Amino acid sequence: MAEDTNIILANRTDADGSIEIVPEVLEVILGIAAQQVDGVYQMRGSLASTINAWFGRANHGKGVELTVDNDTLIADVYVYLDYGVAVPKVAMVMQESLREQLLYMTDLTLAEVNVHVVGVVPEKAPKIDPEDLFKDTDENEEDD
Length: 144
Hints:
It comes from Lacticaseibacillus manihotivorans DSM 13343 = JCM 12514. The chain is of the alpha+beta class.
């Protein structure tokens, strides 16, 4: 039953057999490619991926849902972006990057790449030590 969901990469008559790939592998490829786009803070995860992260297991396919309809591949990508980035620009770069990466690695083409911006994460400010509020930073460097 699981074999029906596999995607055939090559099925040539001169080959010794066929090459099939599980859709979850494509989700991992797309997830890694999406995380490498500038302006992406992180991918949206599920409860299972959060629990796996607590145990040190990285889930590179989180935030990506791949739909296979006949010979059509549709990717839905759920991301958190850094604050201050141009959302349409990052989304278009992500769409192009994911299409190129999947084509390069598997020779498959994506019909659609739907980017869903789940949230924007503000830049973290450095923590302030309440004891050093009024100290001069130059004095601290000279004492070291």
